[in-house]
Design brief:
mainly alpha, about 120 residues
């Protein structure tokens, strides 16, 4: 008997689901979508799958500049969101404090007679 080595090779597509087939219209729509990409040329250049070893110094510098600017922009956006979040948290905290104080005052007001009776018994 001979010893045979079997192996499994997978030629799938990333994101593909088992048992799901695409019809030709879906494939055509996906192709059209990729051709009508609205991304700016600078963005496309910075996000190409080109290997670093095959880039010139100027290409690498341009890519680095673009990626740094994108990172700085996203950090600026996050900082403004964080400021808004902090403000909202302060408002909610003040609101809950006001609600707690109001509830306490209403409870005391509604039970003034009972409080007076307790104080008179002790006095």
């Amino acid at each position: 008997m001979t010893n045979l080595n079997y192996y499994l090779t997978h030629y799938g597509i990333l994101g593909m689901k088992w048992g799901v087939r695409r019809i030709p219209e879906q494939l055509a729509r996906a192709r059209r979508r990729s051709m009508t990409d609205k991304s700016h040329e600078d963005y496309k250049k910075a996000h190409t799958p080109k290997r670093i070893k095959s880039m010139s110094d100027a290409e690498l510098r341009n890519r680095l500049n673009r990626l740094q600017m994108e990172r700085q922009y996203s950090q600026l956006s996050e900082s403004s969101i964080n400021k808004g979040k902090e403000y909202a948290q302060k408002v909610f905290k003040a609101g809950t404090t006001v609600a707690a104080v109001t509830t306490t005052v209403l409870t005391i007001y509604n039970n003034v007679d009972k409080i007076k009776a307790i104080l008179e018994k002790k006095g």
